[in-house]
Amino acid sequence: MGRKLLLEHINVPGINTLEVYRQKGGYRSVEKALKQMTPEEIVEEVKKSGLRGRGGAGFPTGMKWGFLAKPEGVARYLVCNGDESEPGTFKDRYLMTYIPHALIEGMIVGSFALGAHVSYIYLRGEMMPQIRILEKAIAEAKAAGFLGKNILGTGYDLELYVQPGGGAYICGEETALLESLEGKRGNPRIKPPFPAIAGLYGCPTVVNNVESIAAVVPIINDGGEEYAKIGVGRSTGTKLISAGGNLKKPGVYEIELGLTCEEFVYSDEYCGGIANGKTLKAVVAGGSSVPILPNNLFFKTANGEARLMSYESLSDGGFATGTMLGSGGFIAYDEDQCIVRNTWNFTRFYHHESCGQCSPCREGTGWMEKVLHRLEHGHGKMSDIDLLVDVSKKIEGNTICPLGDAAAWPVASAIRHFRDEFEWHVTHPSEATTRNFGLAHYADPLPKKEETAA
Amino acid sequence: MLRVEDTTEHAPVTFSAELIAKFDDVVSRYPQGKQKSALLPILHLVQAELGWVSPPAMDKVAEYLSIQPIEVYEVATFYTMYLLRPQGKFLFEVCRTGPCEIVGAGKIMDYIENKLGVKEGEVTPDGLFSWRGVECLAACGYGPVLQIGPEYTFYENLTEQSVDQLISDLKAKANN
């Protein structure tokens, strides 16, 4: 059993209420932080923990906090990014639904460390039920004296509000989120200045993912060094992985970073293997934007070492043979899934969600979608495959925000690893929509535990 | 005024005192002079009340927030959750993105289309139902999923039977 820091009490009845949450040791970190620590000590503790942003980019949270400008007489803000829209990712929704107080507790400690007196939790608009849950929890916390004026008699004031978005993937990008929070279209800003200097309303702002903020709670309770003992190398602590696709037991799992990929997929403690006794064909390890990997490269790196669920191990081999941990949105594809169709589906998503600000992304995603659509439906040409690679290269790195890269990587990686499947769609147009290409050689060496999945 | 196809509903709207009180509560969350931040939450409140955001409603919101109407239009047209034309009383928003797709979202959408007898974006003759495919709803482990506003209740692990059940439940609810 791996250690659980965030989901330890997930099955306790009533853990969504302040009363039960307190009984299980909730809000200890607020008392410790506000009464015994200075803001600088909290930032230092988070730096020591090695916590890296759980939203996808993996930037060290403590360092981000350390960058915050602190000019005299200017308000500072902590904004929680709960826009969670990356296909494959649903961990934040889970955390907020069942343990809303974990996020609120982390927000209080974080706001205190950053010197913020008003903080916002920005959720995607579709999470209306979670907004209600959080608002109720905030009211409970306020009634108990953890929010509002003079918190716990320390003289520190904090108001916490929940803001709904309007259903736009782009608002997960931090500057687009800030634009949206200001009541505008979610067009990402040109950086610099970074939000740490000029963020919400032009004031210094830190934007953190829901899970990153919740992880501050165990870091303050047990100390950053204790947190850093979990995990492997620079991937410290635990991570929520939301597993979906053709798995026996899809759901949200908290893992210690450094778990082997094989154990994560096949052990009964986690995903329990592939559904319906099928064979795993491919994996998207960290949300739709990270490169897709065939089965064999997912379990073993190009050097033949066992691959681990950690930032470093998943990206071992770069984009040639590796991928990224990303946001922890894990998608498993069995032998019946068509990679071309899936790539087209993802590209349609990026085309739909492109904010339209930068031409390479706005036009490029549309062209890739059209070309992939015709390949999938048997109208493609052999030259289309290189055309896709060409377009994806022209998007990557040429846009204000990373949505362009996120749209380019899945296409480039699908062609890199599954080129024969794309070619098969060109050479077998009549079968392209009726039959699947199948496993081919992607799944060798077959994992030994395959029989037990049946 | 924004041009809206397929509808003649440009009727003027008035916001009730209760709704205005809700607007005021939202505006109080932001610093002085930053009331524009309330735009997205207020549009959600308007849509929950009217079923969609009509051009006259958007103009009223602009007036309430002391901003230009275009500032409301550009936001309402950017974010996909805001409905720019009337929909059925129950709008099924079915996730069609990757992880849901591989567990059968396409088939469920076909089934809903046949069952309701209307194409994506159209409303059933009784005015009760419409449906559309939407992008990822962050429920990838429980697919296929659909949501129904304005509370955005989720219906997970959809099957043909559960869709049948849902439709008959909603019909019964509407007739009571």
TrEMBL record, chain A:
Domain of life: Bacteria
Top class in the EC scheme: translocase
Catalytic reaction(s) noted: a quinone + NADH + 5 H(+)(in) = a quinol + NAD(+) + 4 H(+)(out)
Keywords annotated in UniProt: 4Fe-4S, Flavoprotein, FMN, Iron, Iron-sulfur, Metal-binding, NAD, Oxidoreductase, Quinone, Translocase
Cross-referenced SMART domains: NADH_4Fe-4S
E.C. code: 7.1.1.-
GO molecular function: 4 iron, 4 sulfur cluster binding; FMN binding; metal ion binding; NAD binding; NADH dehydrogenase (ubiquinone) activity; oxidoreductase activity; quinone binding
Co-factor(s): [4Fe-4S] cluster; FMN
Signal sequence residues: none
InterPro entries: NADH-UbQ_OxRdtase_51kDa_CS, NADH-UbQ_OxRdtase_suF, Nuo51_FMN-bd, Nuo51_FMN-bd_sf, Nuop51_4Fe4S-bd, Nuop51_4Fe4S-bd_sf
Residue ranges occupied by any NADH-ubiquinone oxidoreductase 51kDa subunit iron-sulphur binding domain in the UniProt entry: 340-385
Gene3D superfamilies registered for this protein in UniProt: 3.10.20.600, 6.10.250.1450, NADH-ubiquinone oxidoreductase 51kDa subunit (3.40.50.11540), NADH-ubiquinone oxidoreductase 51kDa subunit, iron-sulphur binding domain (1.20.1440.230)
Family to which this protein belongs: Belongs to the complex I 51 kDa subunit family.
Function text: NDH-1 shuttles electrons from NADH, via FMN and iron-sulfur (Fe-S) centers, to quinones in the respiratory chain.
NCBIfam families referenced in this protein's UniProt entry, alphabetically: nuoF_fam, PRK13596.1
Annotated protein name in UniProt: NADH-quinone oxidoreductase subunit F
From TrEMBL, chain B:
Co-factor binding details: Binds 1 [2Fe-2S] cluster.
Annotated keywords: 2Fe-2S, Iron, Iron-sulfur, Metal-binding
Pfam hit, one: 2Fe-2S_thioredx
Classification via Gene3D superfamilies: Glutaredoxin, NADH-quinone oxidoreductase subunit E
Named cofactor requirement(s): [2Fe-2S] cluster
CDD domains per UniProt: TRX_Fd_NuoE
SUPFAM superfamilies linked: Thioredoxin-like
Binding residues for [2Fe-2S] cluster: C95, C100, C136, C140
Gene Ontology molecular-function annotations: 2 iron, 2 sulfur cluster binding; metal ion binding; NADH dehydrogenase activity
Family stated for the protein in its record: Belongs to the complex I 24 kDa subunit family.
PANTHER family: NADH DEHYDROGENASE [UBIQUINONE] FLAVOPROTEIN 2, MITOCHONDRIAL, NADH DEHYDROGENASE UBIQUINONE FLAVOPROTEIN 2, MITOCHONDRIAL
Protein name (record): NAD(P)H-dependent oxidoreductase subunit E
Taxonomic source organism: Mucilaginibacter myungsuensis
